[in-house]
Protein backbone atom coordinates (compact mmCIF):
# COMPACT_ATOMS: atom_id res chain seq x y z
CA UNK A 1 0.00 0.00 0.00
CA UNK A 2 1.02 3.65 -0.33
CA UNK A 3 2.21 5.81 2.53
CA UNK A 4 4.21 9.04 2.97
CA UNK A 5 7.42 8.30 4.90
CA UNK A 6 9.98 10.51 6.59
CA UNK A 7 13.26 8.58 6.49
CA UNK A 8 15.27 10.73 8.90
CA UNK A 9 14.36 13.41 11.44
CA UNK A 10 15.23 16.82 10.05
CA UNK A 11 14.29 16.12 6.45
CA UNK A 12 11.74 18.60 5.09
CA UNK A 13 10.12 16.39 2.46
CA UNK A 14 8.24 13.10 2.58
CA UNK A 15 8.60 10.24 0.13
CA UNK A 16 5.41 8.55 -1.02
CA UNK A 17 6.13 4.83 -1.30
CA UNK A 18 4.00 1.88 -2.39
CA UNK A 19 5.83 -0.89 -0.50
CA UNK A 20 4.52 -0.14 3.01
CA UNK A 21 2.58 -2.71 5.06
CA UNK A 22 0.45 -1.95 8.13
CA UNK A 23 1.56 -4.00 11.15
CA UNK A 24 0.04 -5.24 14.37
CA UNK A 25 -3.43 -6.48 13.46
CA UNK A 26 -4.79 -8.94 16.00
CA UNK A 27 -6.90 -9.10 19.17
CA UNK A 28 -8.08 -5.69 20.32
CA UNK A 29 -7.03 -4.01 17.06
CA UNK A 30 -8.84 -2.55 14.06
CA UNK A 31 -7.70 -1.92 10.51
CA UNK A 32 -8.89 1.39 9.02
CA UNK A 33 -8.98 2.48 5.40
CA UNK A 34 -8.03 6.15 5.69
CA UNK A 35 -10.22 8.43 3.57
CA UNK A 36 -9.17 11.90 4.73
CA UNK A 37 -6.47 13.30 6.96
CA UNK A 38 -5.51 16.81 7.97
CA UNK A 39 -2.00 18.21 8.13
CA UNK A 40 -1.42 19.52 11.64
CA UNK A 41 1.55 21.64 12.70
CA UNK A 42 2.52 18.87 15.12
CA UNK A 43 3.33 16.68 12.11
CA UNK A 44 5.79 19.29 10.87
CA UNK A 45 7.22 19.65 14.39
CA UNK A 46 7.82 15.90 14.58
CA UNK A 47 9.53 15.95 11.19
CA UNK A 48 11.90 18.70 12.34
CA UNK A 49 12.61 17.06 15.70
CA UNK A 50 10.82 19.64 17.85
CA UNK A 51 8.49 16.87 19.03
CA UNK A 52 10.10 13.51 19.89
CA UNK A 53 9.25 10.72 17.44
CA UNK A 54 11.33 7.70 16.36
CA UNK A 55 12.18 7.60 12.66
CA UNK A 56 11.58 6.45 10.00
CA UNK A 57 7.93 7.24 10.47
CA UNK A 58 4.65 7.97 8.72
CA UNK A 59 3.35 11.39 9.88
CA UNK A 60 -0.32 12.19 10.34
CA UNK A 61 -2.61 11.83 13.36
CA UNK A 62 -5.72 13.75 12.31
CA UNK A 63 -7.63 11.24 10.20
CA UNK A 64 -10.90 9.47 9.49
CA UNK A 65 -11.98 6.51 7.39
CA UNK A 66 -13.76 3.18 7.23
CA UNK A 67 -13.11 0.17 9.41
CA UNK A 68 -12.27 -2.78 7.18
CA UNK A 69 -11.35 -5.41 9.78
CA UNK A 70 -11.73 -5.90 13.55
CA UNK A 71 -9.72 -8.19 15.77
CA UNK A 72 -10.91 -10.66 18.39
CA UNK A 73 -12.35 -9.09 21.50
CA UNK A 74 -13.32 -5.81 19.85
CA UNK A 75 -16.82 -4.70 20.80
CA UNK A 76 -18.97 -1.96 19.33
CA UNK A 77 -17.07 -1.75 16.04
CA UNK A 78 -17.62 -3.64 12.80
CA UNK A 79 -16.34 -3.63 9.22
CA UNK A 80 -17.99 -0.82 7.29
CA UNK A 81 -18.27 1.50 10.29
CA UNK A 82 -17.10 5.07 9.76
CA UNK A 83 -14.63 6.29 12.36
CA UNK A 84 -12.30 9.11 13.25
CA UNK A 85 -8.86 8.24 14.56
CA UNK A 86 -8.12 9.30 18.14
CA UNK A 87 -4.36 9.64 18.67
CA UNK A 88 -4.77 9.92 22.46
CA UNK A 89 -7.11 7.11 23.54
CA UNK A 90 -8.01 6.59 27.17
CA UNK A 91 -7.23 3.23 28.78
CA UNK A 92 -9.96 3.76 31.40
CA UNK A 93 -7.96 2.23 34.25
CA UNK A 94 -4.94 4.45 34.97
CA UNK A 95 -5.01 7.09 37.76
CA UNK A 96 -5.63 9.92 35.27
CA UNK A 97 -8.60 8.11 33.72
CA UNK A 98 -10.02 7.27 37.15
CA UNK A 99 -9.86 10.97 38.04
CA UNK A 100 -11.79 11.81 34.89
CA UNK A 101 -8.73 13.41 33.24
CA UNK A 102 -8.75 11.05 30.28
CA UNK A 103 -6.76 13.49 28.11
CA UNK A 104 -3.80 12.91 30.47
CA UNK A 105 -3.80 9.14 29.92
CA UNK A 106 -0.38 7.94 28.73
CA UNK A 107 -1.57 4.81 26.94
CA UNK A 108 -1.57 6.51 23.55
CA UNK A 109 1.94 7.88 23.99
CA UNK A 110 3.25 4.42 24.79
CA UNK A 111 2.05 3.26 21.38
CA UNK A 112 4.42 5.70 19.71
CA UNK A 113 7.37 3.42 20.48
CA UNK A 114 5.91 0.42 18.65
CA UNK A 115 6.30 0.19 14.84
CA UNK A 116 2.99 0.52 12.98
CA UNK A 117 4.35 -0.29 9.54
CA UNK A 118 6.98 -2.33 7.71
CA UNK A 119 8.92 -1.88 4.51
CA UNK A 120 11.38 -4.27 2.86
CA UNK A 121 14.14 -2.26 4.54
CA UNK A 122 12.74 -2.56 8.05
CA UNK A 123 10.14 -1.27 10.51
CA UNK A 124 8.47 2.14 10.24
CA UNK A 125 6.74 3.98 13.09
CA UNK A 126 3.48 5.91 12.99
CA UNK A 127 3.45 9.42 14.42
CA UNK A 128 1.75 9.56 17.82
CA UNK A 129 1.08 5.84 17.57
CA UNK A 130 -1.09 6.32 14.47
CA UNK A 131 0.37 7.61 11.17
CA UNK A 132 -2.51 8.63 8.92
CA UNK A 133 -0.61 9.69 5.78
CA UNK A 134 -1.31 6.24 4.44
CA UNK A 135 -4.01 4.19 2.77
CA UNK A 136 -4.48 1.86 5.76
CA UNK A 137 -3.50 1.91 9.42
CA UNK A 138 -3.85 -0.60 12.27
CA UNK A 139 -4.63 0.92 15.67
CA UNK A 140 -5.98 -0.08 19.07
CA UNK A 141 -9.77 -0.34 19.08
CA UNK A 142 -9.88 2.64 21.45
CA UNK A 143 -8.35 4.81 18.72
CA UNK A 144 -11.30 4.16 16.38
CA UNK A 145 -14.23 6.38 17.38
CA UNK A 146 -17.49 5.80 15.42
CA UNK A 147 -18.90 8.86 13.69
CA UNK A 148 -22.49 9.43 12.44
CA UNK A 149 -23.20 8.98 8.75
CA UNK A 150 -23.87 12.71 8.24
CA UNK A 151 -20.36 13.74 9.27
CA UNK A 152 -18.05 13.89 6.22
CA UNK A 153 -14.65 12.27 6.55
CA UNK A 154 -12.81 15.59 6.13
CA UNK A 155 -14.82 17.24 8.91
CA UNK A 156 -14.34 14.20 11.16
CA UNK A 157 -10.60 14.33 10.55
CA UNK A 158 -10.44 17.94 11.79
CA UNK A 159 -12.39 17.01 14.91
CA UNK A 160 -9.78 14.30 15.52
CA UNK A 161 -7.21 16.91 16.56
CA UNK A 162 -7.22 20.61 15.61
CA UNK A 163 -10.85 21.43 16.31
CA UNK A 164 -10.96 19.48 19.57
CA UNK A 165 -7.71 21.10 20.72
CA UNK A 166 -8.72 24.70 19.95
CA UNK A 167 -12.33 24.52 21.03
CA UNK A 168 -11.41 22.70 24.20
CA UNK A 169 -8.74 25.24 25.13
CA UNK A 170 -11.38 27.98 25.17
CA UNK A 171 -14.29 25.97 26.56
CA UNK A 172 -12.67 23.43 28.90
CA UNK A 173 -9.27 24.73 29.95
CA UNK A 174 -9.68 28.51 30.05
CA UNK A 175 -13.49 28.48 30.46
CA UNK A 176 -13.73 31.91 28.82
CA UNK A 177 -16.19 34.21 30.59
CA UNK A 178 -18.95 36.00 28.71
CA UNK A 179 -18.14 39.64 27.98
CA UNK A 180 -14.39 39.13 28.35
CA UNK A 181 -11.49 40.22 26.14
CA UNK A 182 -9.44 37.56 24.33
CA UNK A 183 -6.31 37.48 22.19
CA UNK A 184 -5.29 34.42 20.17
CA UNK A 185 -1.66 34.30 19.02
CA UNK A 186 -1.30 31.95 16.06
CA UNK A 187 -4.31 31.57 13.78
CA UNK A 188 -3.92 28.34 11.90
CA UNK A 189 -6.48 25.55 12.32
CA UNK A 190 -6.09 25.27 16.09
CA UNK A 191 -6.05 29.03 16.63
CA UNK A 192 -9.17 29.53 14.52
CA UNK A 193 -10.86 26.79 16.55
CA UNK A 194 -9.91 28.62 19.76
CA UNK A 195 -11.44 31.78 18.27
CA UNK A 196 -14.65 29.90 17.55
CA UNK A 197 -14.64 28.54 21.10
CA UNK A 198 -14.18 32.01 22.59
CA UNK A 199 -17.03 33.31 20.44
CA UNK A 200 -19.28 30.47 21.63
CA UNK A 201 -18.48 31.36 25.23
CA UNK A 202 -19.54 34.96 24.66
CA UNK A 203 -16.25 36.86 24.58
CA UNK A 204 -16.85 40.52 23.72
CA UNK A 205 -13.53 41.20 21.99
CA UNK A 206 -11.45 38.55 20.24
CA UNK A 207 -8.19 39.74 18.70
CA UNK A 208 -6.51 37.39 16.22
CA UNK A 209 -2.72 37.76 16.05
CA UNK A 210 -0.78 36.26 13.14
CA UNK A 211 2.04 37.38 10.83
CA UNK A 212 0.24 36.09 7.71
CA UNK A 213 -2.31 38.54 6.28
CA UNK A 214 -4.45 35.79 4.74
CA UNK A 215 -4.82 34.09 8.12
CA UNK A 216 -5.73 37.36 9.80
CA UNK A 217 -8.41 37.95 7.18
CA UNK A 218 -9.73 34.39 7.60
CA UNK A 219 -9.86 34.75 11.39
CA UNK A 220 -12.34 37.60 11.05
CA UNK A 221 -14.73 35.20 9.33
CA UNK A 222 -14.60 32.78 12.27
CA UNK A 223 -15.46 35.22 15.04
CA UNK A 224 -12.44 37.47 15.62
CA UNK A 225 -13.51 41.08 16.15
CA UNK A 226 -10.11 42.38 15.09
CA UNK A 227 -6.99 40.90 13.47
CA UNK A 228 -3.49 42.31 13.86
CA UNK A 229 0.09 41.47 12.99
CA UNK A 230 2.33 40.52 15.96
CA UNK A 231 3.99 43.94 16.02
CA UNK A 232 0.54 45.55 16.39
CA UNK A 233 -0.47 43.57 19.48
CA UNK A 234 0.82 46.17 21.94
CA UNK A 235 -1.27 48.85 20.28
CA UNK A 236 -4.34 46.60 20.31
CA UNK A 237 -3.80 45.92 24.01
CA UNK A 238 -3.70 49.67 24.68
CA UNK A 239 -6.77 50.47 22.57
CA UNK A 240 -8.98 47.61 23.68
CA UNK A 241 -8.01 47.17 27.32
CA UNK A 242 -6.63 50.60 28.24
CA UNK A 243 -3.22 49.00 28.57
CA UNK A 244 -4.33 46.63 31.34
CA UNK A 245 -4.10 43.50 29.22
CA UNK A 246 -6.51 40.89 27.92
CA UNK A 247 -8.58 38.68 30.20
CA UNK A 248 -7.48 35.60 28.24
CA UNK A 249 -4.55 35.11 25.88
CA UNK A 250 -4.10 31.87 23.93
CA UNK A 251 -0.61 30.96 22.74
CA UNK A 252 -1.07 28.60 19.79
CA UNK A 253 2.46 28.63 18.34
CA UNK A 254 4.48 26.55 20.77
CA UNK A 255 7.50 28.82 21.26
CA UNK A 256 8.83 30.44 24.41
CA UNK A 257 9.12 33.83 22.71
CA UNK A 258 5.42 33.95 21.82
CA UNK A 259 4.48 32.51 25.22
CA UNK A 260 6.40 35.39 26.84
CA UNK A 261 4.60 37.85 24.57
CA UNK A 262 1.31 36.24 25.51
CA UNK A 263 2.16 36.51 29.21
CA UNK A 264 2.87 40.22 28.84
CA UNK A 265 -0.38 40.73 26.93
CA UNK A 266 -2.40 39.12 29.75
CA UNK A 267 -3.82 41.38 32.45
CA UNK A 268 -2.96 40.90 36.11
CA UNK A 269 -5.20 38.14 37.39
CA UNK A 270 -5.93 37.06 33.81
CA UNK A 271 -5.34 33.74 32.11
CA UNK A 272 -2.58 32.66 29.73
CA UNK A 273 -3.57 29.42 28.01
CA UNK A 274 -0.67 27.58 26.37
CA UNK A 275 -1.96 25.47 23.49
CA UNK A 276 1.02 25.19 21.13
CA UNK A 277 3.23 22.10 21.34
CA UNK A 278 6.85 23.18 21.74
CA UNK A 279 10.32 21.71 22.13
CA UNK A 280 11.69 20.23 25.35
CA UNK A 281 14.75 22.50 25.23
CA UNK A 282 12.79 25.74 24.68
CA UNK A 283 12.38 27.29 28.12
CA UNK A 284 9.93 30.02 29.14
CA UNK A 285 11.59 32.53 31.49
CA UNK A 286 9.51 34.09 34.27
CA UNK A 287 10.79 35.66 37.45
CA UNK A 288 9.43 34.70 40.83
CA UNK A 289 8.27 38.21 41.68
CA UNK A 290 6.06 38.61 38.60
CA UNK A 291 4.57 35.17 39.19
CA UNK A 292 3.62 36.20 42.72
CA UNK A 293 2.70 39.84 42.11
CA UNK A 294 0.72 39.58 38.85
CA UNK A 295 -1.20 36.45 39.82
CA UNK A 296 -1.67 35.49 36.20
CA UNK A 297 -2.96 31.97 35.71
CA UNK A 298 -0.86 29.89 33.32
CA UNK A 299 -2.92 26.99 32.03
CA UNK A 300 -1.41 24.47 29.61
CA UNK A 301 -4.03 22.76 27.45
CA UNK A 302 -3.29 19.26 26.10
CA UNK A 303 -5.75 18.15 23.41
CA UNK A 304 -8.26 20.72 24.66
CA UNK A 305 -8.49 19.28 28.17
CA UNK A 306 -11.53 17.39 29.43
CA UNK A 307 -12.94 14.11 28.21
CA UNK A 308 -11.90 13.54 24.60
CA UNK A 309 -14.93 11.50 23.52
CA UNK A 310 -17.29 14.06 25.02
CA UNK A 311 -15.37 16.80 23.22
CA UNK A 312 -15.87 14.97 19.91
CA UNK A 313 -19.61 14.69 20.56
CA UNK A 314 -19.82 18.38 21.47
CA UNK A 315 -17.98 19.43 18.31
CA UNK A 316 -20.32 17.37 16.14
CA UNK A 317 -23.39 18.80 17.89
CA UNK A 318 -22.14 22.37 17.48
CA UNK A 319 -21.30 21.75 13.81
CA UNK A 320 -24.74 20.28 13.13
CA UNK A 321 -26.38 23.29 14.78
CA UNK A 322 -24.34 25.71 12.68
CA UNK A 323 -22.63 27.14 15.76
CA UNK A 324 -19.13 26.33 14.46
CA UNK A 325 -17.89 26.32 10.87
CA UNK A 326 -15.60 23.43 10.04
CA UNK A 327 -15.88 23.12 6.27
CA UNK A 328 -14.41 26.61 5.65
CA UNK A 329 -11.41 25.74 7.80
CA UNK A 330 -10.30 23.42 4.98
CA UNK A 331 -8.73 25.93 2.60
CA UNK A 332 -6.72 23.49 0.47
CA UNK A 333 -7.07 19.89 -0.70
CA UNK A 334 -4.41 17.57 -2.13
CA UNK A 335 -3.97 13.89 -2.88
CA UNK A 336 -1.46 11.74 -1.01
CA UNK A 337 1.03 12.01 -3.86
CA UNK A 338 0.96 15.80 -3.44
CA UNK A 339 1.74 15.71 0.27
CA UNK A 340 4.83 17.93 -0.05
CA UNK A 341 2.63 20.67 -1.50
CA UNK A 342 0.59 20.49 1.70
CA UNK A 343 3.76 20.82 3.77
CA UNK A 344 4.70 23.96 1.85
CA UNK A 345 1.23 25.39 2.43
CA UNK A 346 1.62 24.77 6.16
CA UNK A 347 5.11 26.26 6.41
CA UNK A 348 4.23 29.42 4.49
CA UNK A 349 0.95 29.92 6.33
CA UNK A 350 -1.01 29.73 3.07
CA UNK A 351 -3.48 27.21 4.49
CA UNK A 352 -5.58 27.11 7.65
CA UNK A 353 -5.94 23.37 7.16
CA UNK A 354 -5.04 21.22 4.16
CA UNK A 355 -7.05 18.04 3.73
CA UNK A 356 -5.20 15.10 2.21
CA UNK A 357 -7.73 12.95 0.39
CA UNK A 358 -6.66 9.32 0.20
* Cα Rg: 20 Å
- Global structural class: alpha/beta
Largest sheet report: 7 strands, mixed
**Between the first and last Cα atoms, what is the distance in angstroms?**
11 Å
Percentage of residues in strands? 25-35%
The chain-level mean pLDDT equals: 96
Shape: globular
Number of strands: 19
How large is the count of helical segments?
Answer: 12
Assign a percent range to the helix content: 25-40%
Low-confidence stretches: none
Summarize the structure.
The protein contains 12 helices and 19 strands. It has helices at about 40-50, 95-100, 105-110, 155-160, 160-175, 190-200, 215-220, 235-240, 255-265, 290-295, 310-320, 340-350, and strands spanning about 5, 15, 20, 30-40, 55-60, 60-70, 80-85, 115-120, 120-125, 135-140, 145, 180-185, 205-210, 225-230, 245-250, 265-275, 295-300, 330-335, 355.
What key attributes describe this structure?
globular
Characterize the structure shown.
There is one protein chain. The protein is of the alpha/beta class. The chain is 29% helix and 26% strand. It has twelve helices and 19 strands. Strands 4, 6, 7, 10, 11, 18 and 19 form a seven-stranded mixed beta sheet that branches. A six-stranded parallel beta sheet has the order 14-13-12-15-16-17, with helices on both faces. A hairpin with a 2-residue loop joins β8 (117-119) and β9. The chain is globular. The mean pLDDT is 96.
Layout of SSEs?
Elements: E1 3-5, E2 15-17, E3 21-22, E4 29-38, H1 41-48, E5 57-58, E6 62-70, E7 82-85, H2 95-98, H3 107-111, E8 117-119, E9 122-126, E10 136-140, E11 144-146, H4 153-159, H5 162-173, E12 181-185, H6 189-200, E13 205-209, H7 213-220, E14 226-228, H8 233-241, E15 246-251, H9 256-265, E16 266-274, H10 288-294, E17 297-300, H11 308-320, E18 330-335, H12 339-348, E19 353-357
Parallel strand pairs: 5-9, 12-13, 12-15, 13-14, 15-16, 16-17, 18-19
Antiparallel strand pairs: 1-2, 3-8, 4-6, 4-10, 4-19, 6-7, 7-11, 8-9
Helix pairs in contact: 5-6, 5-11
Amino acid sequence: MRAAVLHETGQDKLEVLDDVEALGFGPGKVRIRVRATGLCHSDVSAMSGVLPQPAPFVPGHEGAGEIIEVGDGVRGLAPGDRALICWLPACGTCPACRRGETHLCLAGFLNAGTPNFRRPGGDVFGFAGTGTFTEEVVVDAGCAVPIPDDVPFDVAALIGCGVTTGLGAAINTADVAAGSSVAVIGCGGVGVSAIQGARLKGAAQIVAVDPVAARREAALGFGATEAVAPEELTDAKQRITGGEGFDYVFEVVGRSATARTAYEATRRGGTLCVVGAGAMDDHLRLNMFELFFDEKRILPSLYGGGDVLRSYERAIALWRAGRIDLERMITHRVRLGEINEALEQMRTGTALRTCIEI
